């Protein structure tokens, strides 16, 4: 930018008491700048558009003109400076690069968050019967079975899960002969697998009391019955 100029209030030549010599002296001292368009319009131009350049010790460096102009001391917060549109400070370097990089980083972080936090399945695999404890009640012709089963629970998520409960039941010939429910079992870490053993107490009685004769038959050393676990 060039020199900083301040727009003074409108006044006339007669009010200021300027004559031709005074105007000439001020112009030589660099205090008043105006364009003259003839002898008749000279005084009117100066009175309507007076621009004064402040120089000397009573001025400070203009904060918006890169040190090339001066403004009156004490008026730094009162004057308005105009910055050209072509000023490089209005167009920071590598703006497009920074915006593009920011968008890419945001998309990458969003994609990673969705990938790691998206819920995945929890697989439950029934391994089989681990052990069976058999007991009889001769007088009531009742068979008691404590069946211990094994499950493999696999966590396919990238965060820990908690197995809140397991519900199991045993069926024999479409009849439920035993139920069990386990609460607050265990925590499984990310991409981890745990094996869980649980026991279901089972009773065979009443209309199935004929199984008591089969299970206590002495001629058979190994007694096998088929039950379904759920």
From TrEMBL:
Residues 119-230 form the Transmembrane protein 106 C-terminal domain. Pfam families: TMEM106, TMEM106_N. Keywords: Cell membrane, Disulfide bond, Endosome, Glycoprotein, Lysosome, Membrane, Signal-anchor, Transmembrane, Transmembrane helix, Transport. Residues 2-96 form the Transmembrane protein 106 N-terminal domain. It is found in: Cell membrane; Late endosome membrane; Lysosome membrane. The keyword Lipoprotein does not apply. The keyword Membrane applies. It is a single-pass type II membrane protein. The chain crosses the membrane at residues 97-118. GO terms for cellular component: late endosome membrane; lysosomal membrane; plasma membrane. One of its GO terms (biological process) is lysosome organization. Belongs to the TMEM106 family. This is Transmembrane protein 106B. It comes from Pavo cristatus.
